[in-house]
Amino acid sequence: MSFTQYTKKIALIDCNSFYVSCERLFNPKIRKKPVVVLSNNDGCIISRSNEAKTLGIKMGEPYFKEKEIIVKNNVQVFSSNYSLYGDISRRVMRTLKRFNSDIEIYSIDEAFLDLSNYSDKEVEKVGHEIRSIVLKWTGIPTSIGIAKTKTLSKVANHIAKKKQSGVVSLIGIKNIDPILEKVEINDVWGVGRQLTKFYQKNGIYNAKQLKNKSNSWIKKNSNVLGSRTAMELRGISCIDLETTVSKRKSCVVSRSFGKRVESFQQLKEAIANYSLNASEKIRSESLVTKSITVFIRTSPFQNRFGFYSNSKTIDLPIATNNSIEIVKTALNALEAIFKNGYRYQKSGVMLSHLSDSSNNKNLFSSEKDEKINNLMKSIDNTNYRYGRSTLSLASAGVQKKWNMRKEYSSKIDTADFYSLPKIIVT
Ligand SMILES: [Mg+2]
């Protein structure tokens, strides 16, 4: 019996240009055209099609900086539509779970999947199968990297992205040094900006150099995370799949109104207040949320005024516990479901897909995040000392419009009947 058959095998499945791919699903005309998607308030470019990449449009650049290339090349521009992306993401993840329920949903468009129950020989074929089924069932193209550790599966995925086949397996390759040599140190999973600077100062420019650095040097010069990364590059799995999302799955704040509420303004203030309370609650437990749901309803017993009940979920691109962002998103959700002329009796906010805030570092993390974290901390401390709502947001009481700029939204909402595409038969 061969034991190698049962080595650990981890696949990293990453959706290609995810937001762009979602927009293309409902808009076949832009399939072969250069496309970009903008961040909240149409600020920066956060997703690019391959055609847009070829034009030299950079990731994370402010929109206005790239406007000239965009106009000149007739690049299709979209405001982000997170409820659409969240819905498509759930479909992709549901499809992946059919291959193994041991899955770690790493971000809106990425997941680690344990494929250890497949043999070394068949695992690459399984990768191709996953890719084609996800494409067939959801319409989303993916890249898949398979290796013995999470860090190496990220490397494999990096290579897969540039390949036509879209699938790369490092399982069974005896010497992966030539592959690791081509991976720049800042592209190694878990190596951030600071660590990159430090490694480069010490002559480590690529993944191979980190892998072959002596254990004693790594132990002396980096922290636990650093040595885990080096071990993982050597094929020794140290970072487990996080298949359970969090201690607590969701956090709900809801109330019945003492007196029926009809005005949008009043509902808005209520939702803003619940959002603030919920944000404070998850911060106190060191959690971040990826998904915000708002619900409103009238009394089921007062039919003469008409019954109405609805809810709306908005998925965030990056998990957060920032009150400002949570309130803003919740108010957008409310705006989507609010209907005039009803006497509302109850409303609430639910934060879900909660996870540990300590794991919440990513591509977009910056010093600004640090500042916001500190601001949130001081708000919490002040309110703890002087009573809740000593420090609050203007939207929780003062009239204020929270309209997000969304000039180029595709306005597709997979949860909205009226957004269904129309087919005209002639
Ligand atoms: Mg992606």
Q: How many structural domains does the protein architecture include?
A: 3
Which ligands accompany this protein? magnesium ion
Rg, rounded, reads: 24 Å
Q: Globular, elongated, flat, extended or rod-shaped: what is the shape?
A: globular
Give the neighbour order of strands across the main sheet.
Answer: 5-6-1-7-8
Question: What is the name of the CATH class of the largest domain?
Answer: Alpha Beta
CATH topology of the largest domain: Alpha-Beta Plaits
Which spans have pLDDT < 50 for at least 5 consecutive residues? 1-5, 398-404
Query: Main β-sheet: number of strands, strand sense, barrel status?
Result: 5 strands, mixed
Give me the CATH superfamily of the largest domain: Reverse transcriptase/Diguanylate cyclase domain
